[in-house]
Design brief:
This is DUF1488 domain-containing protein. By secondary structure, this protein is an alpha+beta fold. Helix content is about 35%, strand content about 20%. It has a four-stranded mixed beta sheet with strand order 1-2-3-4. A hairpin with a 4-residue loop joins strand 1 and strand 2 (about 15-20). The longest helix is centred in the C-terminal third of the chain and has 14 residues, at about 60-70. The chain is globular and about 35 Å long. The two termini are about 25 Å apart.
């Protein structure tokens, strides 16, 4: 799966698409904050560095986002440092 995401300056987060059932299935949008990227993955820059970090760790982000989606399909998906405590 390719990374589809944007850095949102106004919310200090990166929003990205995930396809839990594959590319032909539903598209969901998840987000991860700057603070979470700082804490969980050591990213220190903002903007394009946030996008680069999401691309570099996309396999982990997707796995966590899909797990959160499956646990609560109707809830917004906002990844937090707690989601990555075993990955950091």
């Amino acid at each position: 799966m390719d990374f589809e995401g944007i850095y949102c300056f106004d919310t200090a987060s990166v929003r990205f698409a995930v396809y839990p059932d594959g590319p032909e299935g539903a598209r969901i949008v998840a987000q991860i904050s700057e603070d979470t990227l700082h804490d969980a993955f050591g990213v220190r820059e903002i903007g394009d560095a946030m996008i680069d970090a999401c691309k570099a760790h996309f396999d982990v982000l997707v796995a966590v986002a899909i797990a959160r989606y499956r646990a609560a399909p109707r809830q917004p998906i906002t990844l937090t440092p707690d989601d990555f405590s075993v990955h950091a």
